[in-house]
Amino acid sequence: MRAQLARVDAVLVQALIAAALSFAHLHDVASAAGQDGWKAWAYPVSVDLLLVAAWRRLRTGEEKAAGWCWFVIALTASLGANVATAGLLDLDQVPAWLRILVAGWPAVAFLGGTLLAHSAPAPHEGTEDQQDQEDAPDPTPELPAQPAPKPTPAPPAVAVPAALVEHARKVAAEHRNRTGAAIDTPTLRARLGVPAPMADAIVAQL
Q1: Nearest 5°: CA angle at 19, between 72 and 27?
Q2: Cβ-contact 158, 197 below 8 angstroms
Q3: On the CB side of 11, how many CA atoms lie within 13 Å of its CA?
Q4: FRET pair for 65, CA 20 to 30 Å: which of 43, 137, 144, 186?
Q5: Residue 87: left if φ>0, alpha if ψ -120 to 50, beta else—which one?
Q6: Is 59 exposed, middle or buried (0-12, 13-18, 19+ CB in 10 A)?
Q7: Helices marked H in 33-124 — which ranges?
Q8: d(CA 28, CA 83)
Q9: In terms of Cα–Cα distance, which of 122, 84, 123, 124 is closest to 101?
Q10: The model scores a pTM over 0.70
């Protein structure tokens, strides 16, 4: 744990030192180019903020082309100030082109910051859409239409001779006189010796 904290502290200290040096170099170049007072201090703030905004777009945005473009522009401004203060340029006699670049930087930084801010996707927009899609109930699959059941054909009528019906009435009457109850179909069938469909047809006519 201590080794991890020491490593983080070392990285943080190194980053702070590098940021302070770059900040000072940008201030010196802006001051040498005729931007005095608070304006000279605003230039390094502008460059660093543009770097941060571009880096954030590279890490979180979908359209990274704009992020890379403005990151390179801000990094070039920072590196250019560091190189300019290394003795390659006479800060007492700043060339006209450098004065033009320094004077035009606020408009460039404002344009870059505005484009990065307003072209960024709305936060959590994709997450909310995904949640809405996940929360939406699954559509119920439509079942194929079932064919209408075919009507069951009625059994063909069994032709019963009239003589057989008359004989069956006598058998039924004799059964009622003997037992006191109406004859049932199985008994009538057994007494007459006919198939079940014919026995049912005879009972229907009794």
Answers
A1: 85
A2: yes
A3: 6
A4: 43
A5: left
A6: exposed
A7: 38-60, 64-83, 96-118
A8: 12
A9: 84
A10: no
Give the SS3 label for residue 160: coil
Q: Name the token pair of 48.
A: 């660093």
Phi then psi for residue 155, to 5 deg, are: -65, 145
CA angle 103, 99, 118 (to 5 degrees): 30
Dump pLDDT digits (tens) for 93-149.
778 887 888 888 888 888 888 887 776 555 444 445 555 555 655 666 666 666 666
pLDDT in tens, 20-43: 777 777 878 888 888 888 888 888
Identity at 104, one-letter amino acid code? G
Task: State whether the Cα torsion 102-106-107-110 is positive or negative.
Answer: positive
Q: Residues, the chain, total?
A: 206
d(CA 78, CA 129): 40
CA–CA distance, 172 with 167 (Å, rounded to integer): 9
